[in-house]
Amino acid sequence: MWKKILNSPAFLLACVTVVIAAVVLSPKTKSLIEAAADFTSPHAMPQSQEWTVASVVDGDTIAVKRDGETKKIRFCGIDAVEKQQKLGPQAKSYLQSLIDKGNGVVMVIPIEQDRSGRTVTEVFVKPRPGTPGYRSEEEIFLNGEMVRAGFARHTHNSDNCPNELVIEQSQQMAIANRVGVWNDSNVVPR
């Protein structure tokens, strides 16, 4: 008898209805749905924006332009060697070389505003086809790459950076490989 009930279409329909009702009426499900619809929610993923790099200020700050607008952006979760410090010019040059791999175009994910009015962001470059060492569908995460190369350090005030773990892992690689600031005790990113 139970086998007959369990295999009946009415029982299956009742089970599906209960599951759907539980999902729809669950407070957690509702808040996730609302979060996805509400861009200001901390659960919502920020949208990336394509910008052209106008200039590289230093190893963690660039000026970008789009549609007549220019703004200065700061990389989320990192602090690079300043341009007047030892390795500073190399950090700026290395960042420029990464940007050049994407013909000067970057994908920016805005995170927040800093106290200087700069937009704090995660920045990616999609390498142009044929760039040695990269697949065309691959993106270079500039925040992490600057840390991995030893030109910046991970800052722990980056709770809002979606890829903070990547930055942290990049720093561990830089320390293990003793590159950049991790190879010279006289240089410490501020």
Fill in the keyword field for this structure.
alpha+beta, two-stranded antiparallel ribbon, 25% strand
Topology diagram in text:
Blueprint (H helix, E strand, L loop, with lengths): L1 H5 L2 H17 L1 H11 L11 E10 L2 E6 L2 E7 L2 E3 L7 H13 L4 E9 L5 E7 L14 E2 H7 L3 E3 L9 H14 L13
Parallel strand pairs: 3-6
Antiparallel strand pairs: 1-2, 1-5, 2-3, 4-8, 5-6, 6-7
Helix pairs in contact: 5-6
Gross morphology: globular
Q: Termini distance?
A: 75 Å
* Helix content estimate: 25-40%
Strand content: 15-25%
Structural class comes to: alpha+beta
**What letter string, H or E per element, gives the SSE order?**
HHHEEEEHEEEHEH
Instruction: Describe the largest sheet.
Output: 5 strands, mixed, barrel
Radius of gyration: 23 Å
Low-confidence stretches: 27-43
Number of helices: 6
Please state the average pLDDT score. 80
Say how many strands there are: 8
Architecture overview:
There is one protein chain. The chain has helices at 2-6, 9-25, 27-37, 88-100, 142-148, 164-177; strands at 49-58, 61-66, 69-75, 78-80, 105-113, 119-125, 140-141, 152-154. The radius of gyration is 23 Å and the shape is globular. The chain starts with a helix and ends in a 13-residue tail after the last helix. Helix 5 (142-148) runs parallel beside helix 6. A hairpin with a 5-residue loop joins strand 5 (105-113) and strand 6. A five-stranded mixed β-barrel has the order 1-2-3-6-5. The protein is built from six helices and eight strands, in the order αααββββαβββαβα. Helix content is 35%, strand content 25%. The model is unreliable at 27-43 (pLDDT under 50). With 190 residues, the protein is of the alpha+beta class.
